[in-house]
Amino acid sequence: MAMPPLTSSSPFRASPPHNLHQGDCVTLNCDETIYQVIGIDDSRDRCWVRRWPLERHGSPVFEISLQQVESNDQKALLERIKNA
User: Fold this and answer.
1) Residue 45 buriedness (CB in 10 A; 0-12 / 13-18 / 19+)
2) Which of 4, 67, 6, 81 shows the shortest CA–CA distance to 36?
3) CB 61 within 8 A of CB 38
4) Peptide bond preceding 4: is omega within 30 degrees of 0, i.e. cis?
5) Buried (b) or exposed (e) across 6-29, using 16+ Cβ within 10 A?
6) What Å distances lie between residue 46 and 12, 35, 68, 75, CA to CA?
7) What's the gap between Cα 32 and its chain centre?
8) pTM of the entire structure?
9) Which of 35, 41, 42, 68 has the CB geometry, 3.0–4.6 Å to 49, for a possible disulfide?
């Protein structure tokens, strides 16, 4: 079941460009590592992420506050992955 995108009533949406969706790649404000969004719960202001690209035996999923998401500029993040 796909998680819905953030709603316009979410306080997180007040800081564009955070139109966050399941599967997006993002960075966090605490480091420059790229993470993939696994799920979003905008009613609790939380999301679940894992490191991207995936490690050989998978990457652990962890929960964070939506305020910790720094960027979801997909074009820039995909370029970083391609050049890594």
Assistant:
1) middle
2) 81
3) yes
4) no
5) beeebebbeeeebebebebbbbbe
6) 10, 15, 9, 24
7) 12
8) 0.70
9) 35
Q: Which of 33, 36, 64 is nearest to 50 (CA)?
A: 36
List, for residues 5-61, the tens digit of each pLDDT value: 444 333 333 343 358 899 999 999 988 899 999 999 989 999 999 999 999 999 999
Structure tokens at 39: 């799920």
* Helical spans, DSSP H, in the chain: 74-83
Return the structure tokens found at 47.
Answer: 């999301």
Architecture of domain 11-83: Roll (2.30)
Length of the chain measured in residues? 84
